[in-house]
Amino acid sequence: MLTNKLTNKLSNAERAEVLVNALPHIRKYSNQIVVVKYGGNAMIDEELKEQVMTDIVLLWLIGVKVVLVHGGGPEMNEVAEKLGKEPKFARGLRVTDEETIDIAEMVLAGKINKSLVSLLNVCGGNAMGISGLDGQMIIAKQKNEELGFVGEIVKTNIKVVTDILDNGYIPVISTLGCDEKGNVYNINGDTAAAYIAGALNAKRMIMLTDIAGIMRDKDDPDSLIPDISIGEALDLCNDGTVGGGMIPKVDSCIKALGMGVENCVIMDGCVPHAILMELLTPEGAGTLIRKGGRL
Questions:
Q1: Is 182 contained in some domain?
Q2: Collapsing DSSP states into helix, strand and coil, what is residue 292?
Q3: Confidence band, pLDDT 50/70/90 cuts, at residue 41
Q4: pTM exceeds 0.85 for this model
Q5: Phi-psi category of 201—alpha, beta or left, where left has phi over 0 and alpha has psi -120 to 50?
Q6: CA 51, CA 156: separation in Å to the nearest integer?
C-alpha cells in the first residue's frame, strides 16, 4: 500500500519524532470517549475498511474509548435487489415496510455488524457487536406513516454501551431502534450517532463521509473550512453554501453538541488514516464544528 511505501522511507529517528509529536494528543484523548460514525465508500472498499479498523484498534490500544456506529445503506440495497425488493426513498429516507425492516435487521445487525467486529478482532482489537435493540438502547417511534418502519429517536438507554466500554471492548453499534411494543425501526445513522455521542458525553464525534468536509465551494477542495462555530454552520446552511446530504450531517453535529459532545468533525473517510490525522496531529482533518469562539 502507498502508506506503507511512504512509511518505509522514514528513518527510525523520523518515526520516533512522529510518535513524540503525537504524545500531547494521546494524553488529550486517553480514557476519553470518541464516537465514530462509519459509512459511505470507506465502508465499501475493503482496503479502506481495513485501514479504518486498524486506526480504531490503534486508538483503543493507547487508551481511547472508541465507539463505532455504522450504517449500511448500499449493502441493504444490494440484498434487497437480490431478494426482488426494489429500494424506495421519500425525502431522502428509505421507505421501510415489513419486508424491508427484516432486511435491515439481517444486514445491519447481522452481516455488516459481525463482519466489522471480526475485522476489528483480526486487527488486534477486542470488539463486541450490538444494535439499538440490545438493552433497549434506542427507543423510537414511527417518524411518519409514509416511511413505514423508519424511527424517530425518543430516548436512549446507554448503559449497555458503558458496560461494554468498562469491560475493555470496542462497541460496534448498528442503528436499529424499537418501541415499547417491540416494533423495530430503521434509524438514520447520523442521528443515532449524535444521540449516542450525546448520551455518552463524548469528547468528540467523528462523521466519516465521502467528501473532505464543509466547503465554501463544493467543487473546490481548497475551499475546505477547517473549523467553524454552530452559528457559522447554520449561516452556511441558510445561505445555501451547505446543501444536499451535508445538511443532515451538520444538523446531527449540532444536535450532538447541544447534548454535551465537546466537538464534532465531518471528514472524508476515504483518506487513508484520516481518523489518526484528526485526533493525533495538530492540523487535524476535515471540518471541526464547535460550540463557541474560534479555537
A1: yes
A2: coil
A3: low
A4: yes
A5: left
A6: 30
Range of the domain at 126: 30-290
Kindly state the percentage of the chain with pLDDT values over 90: 46
Q: Which residue, among 133, 131, 206, 208, has the nearest Cα to 172 in the 3D structure?
A: 131
How far apart (Å, rounded) are the C-alpha atoms in residues 173 and 71? 9
Q: Cα angle at 48 between 255 and 158, to 5 degrees?
A: 35
DSSP state at residue 273:
T
Is there a domain that residue 6 lies in?
A: no
pLDDT in tens, 165-182: 999 999 999 999 999 898
Contact 274, 213 (CB under 8 A): no
pLDDT confidence bin for 31, thresholds 50/70/90: very high
Asked, for residue 9, whether it belongs to a domain, the answer is no
Residue 259 lies in a domain: yes
Distance CA 204, CA 198 (A): 10
Count of structural domains within the chain: 1
**Residue in the block written with cell 486487527:** 123
- Cβ count near 245 (within 10 Å): 12
Which CA distances in Å does 49 have to 19, 60, 223?
24, 17, 27
The 10s digit of each residue's pLDDT in 219-250 is 788 888 889 999 889 988 888 888 877 888 89
The C-alpha cell that represents 278 in the structure block: 484528526
Which residue reads 486517553 in cell numbers? 30
What is the Cα–Cα distance from 66 to 44, expressed in whole angstroms? Answer: 21
Q: Are 157 and 139 in contact (CB under 8 A)?
A: yes
19 has pLDDT over 70: yes
* CATH number where 266 lies: 3.40.1160.10
